[in-house]
Write a structure and sequence with these properties.
Elements: H1 3-31, H2 33-38, E1 55-56, E2 62-67, E3 70-72, H3 80-83, E4 85-87, E5 91-93, H4 95-98, H5 100-103, E6 106-107, E7 114-115, E8 120-121, H6 126-135, E9 141-147, E10 152-159, H7 167-176, H8 185-188, E11 191-192, E12 219-221, E13 224-227, H9 229-238, E14 266-268, E15 271-280, E16 283-292, E17 295-302, H10 307-317
Helix pairs in contact: 6-10
Length: 319
C-alpha cells in the first residue's frame, strides 16, 4: 500500500468519526423521543397558560390570572409596570418574568399531568396605588410609596404606562416610542441626582444584577451622578433599619427608627421633606421626598422644574 492509499484510508476514517456523532444524536433522539418530549425539565415544551399561577396584592385582590390560553390583567395600565406581561410571541416582563419559575405550571415526573403554578402575593396595596396615581400629575416620571416598618413597596407609578393585554398589537409602536413606556422608571429609571449626589455614600449600594424588578448601580455621566427613586428609598430605609427594599408581601415588622439627622431631608411639621430640580444637558427633573414614619414617598417628574409641586404630590400620596 502506497502513501496515497494510506492517506485516503485515513481520510475515510476521520469522515466516519465525524459522521458518527450526529448519527448517534439522531439515534438517541429517535429512541428516547417519548422521554424527551414528556420530561418536565424540557424547557422547549410549550407552557399551558391555564396552569400559570395567579398574582395578588397584599390584601388578596386579584391582579393577574389565566382565562383559557391567555393571561388577564384586570387593572390594566394602572399596574402595567408591576404585573408586566406574558406573551408567547414577545416573551415576559415585570413580575411575570421576575417570578416566572414560581408562576409557571408544575409538571409531574411523568411529564403528562400538570399542576397550577404557585400563587404570588405582592407588597402592592391597590388603594394606595390608586392614590399615588391620582397625586402624580406629570406625564413622565416615577414615584414610590414605601412602608419603612416592613421594607415593602406599597405603590409604584411609572409614566407613561402601557396596556399589558395589547402587547401583541402595540409592541412595535412601544419599541419606537421615544418616551419608552416599557421602562420601569421607579427601579430602572436613572435621573440626575442634583444635590442628592453628596447626601449618601452611593458607592456602598449592593452590587445587584439589573432586572425589571431591581435597580442598577449609580452611573456618573458628564460629572453628574444618575440614580433611581428606588435607590433613594433604599438609603432612607437603611438609615433606620436592616430590612431590604422588597416588592413581596411579608408579615415581618421591624419598627423603623429615624436618626436624629437625615440630610438632605429637612425636619418640618409633618415629618421630613426635601425637593430640588436637577439638570443634565437638556433634561430637567424635579425630585421630591416626603417622610412621615413609617411612610416614605419619592417622586421624580421628568421635563419639569416644579419641585414644589412635586413635593406637594409626594405629601398627598402619604396616608
Amino acid at each position: 500500500m502506497n502513501f496515497d492509499e494510506r492517506l485516503t484510508r485515513v481520510k475515510w476514517v476521520f469522515l466516519f468519526l465525524l459522521l458518527l456523532v450526529p448519527l448517534r444524536l439522531v439515534a438517541l433522539q429517535w429512541g428516547w423521543r417519548q422521554q424527551l418530549n414528556t420530561d418536565p425539565h424540557n424547557s422547549r415544551l410549550l407552557e399551558k397558560v391555564a396552569y400559570r399561577g395567579r398574582v395578588l396584592d397584599r390584601h388578596g385582590q386579584l391582579l393577574v390570572y389565566s382565562r383559557g390560553n391567555r393571561r388577564v390583567y384586570p387593572q390594566g395600565a394602572l399596574l402595567s409596570h408591576w404585573t408586566g406581561f406574558y406573551s408567547v410571541d414577545r416573551g415576559v416582563a415585570g413580575v411575570e418574568r421576575w417570578k416566572n419559575e414560581l408562576l409557571r405550571e408544575r409538571r409531574e415526573e411523568n411529564g403528562v399531568t400538570s399542576r397550577p403554578g404557585h400563587e404570588l402575593r405582592l407588597s402592592l396595596d391597590l388603594p394606595r396605588q390608586r392614590s399615588l396615581e391620582r397625586a402624580f400629575l406629570a406625564e413622565q416620571g416615577a414615584a414610590l410609596l414605601v412602608d419603612l416598618d416592613r421594607g415593602q413597596v406599597l405603590a409604584a407609578v411609572s409614566k407613561p404606562e402601557f396596556q399589558p393585554s395589547r402587547v401583541g398589537v402595540d409592541w412595535r409602536r412601544w419599541q419606537k416610542d421615544a418616551q419608552a413606556p416599557l421602562l420601569n422608571r421607579p427601579f430602572l429609571g436613572l435621573y440626575p441626582a442634583g444635590r442628592l449626589a453628596e447626601a449618601w455614600p452611593w458607592g456602598q449600594l449592593p452590587k445587584r444584577p439589573v432586572s425589571l424588578m431591581d435597580w442598577a448601580s449609580p452611573e456618573p455621566v458628564q460629572g453628574q451622578l444618575l440614580i433611581s427613586p428606588a435607590q433613594v428609598a433604599y438609603f432612607v430605609l437603611k438609615s433606620g433599619s436592616a430590612l431590604p427594599l422588597s416588592q413581596l408581601f411579608s408579615d415581618h415588622v421591624q419598627p423603623w427608627s429615624p436618626p436624629l439627622e437625615l440630610p438632605p431631608l429637612q425636619k418640618c411639621a409633618r415629618g421630613w421633606q426635601w425637593s430640588c430640580a436637577a439638570r443634565l444637558d437638556r433634561q430637567v427633573v424635579s425630585w421630591a421626598v416626603a417622610l412621615r414614619p413609617p411612610y416614605l414617598a419619592v417622586v421624580v417628574w421628568e421635563n419639569s422644574g416644579h419641585e414644589k409641586a412635586a413635593l406637594k404630590a409626594a405629601w398627598k400620596s402619604i396616608p
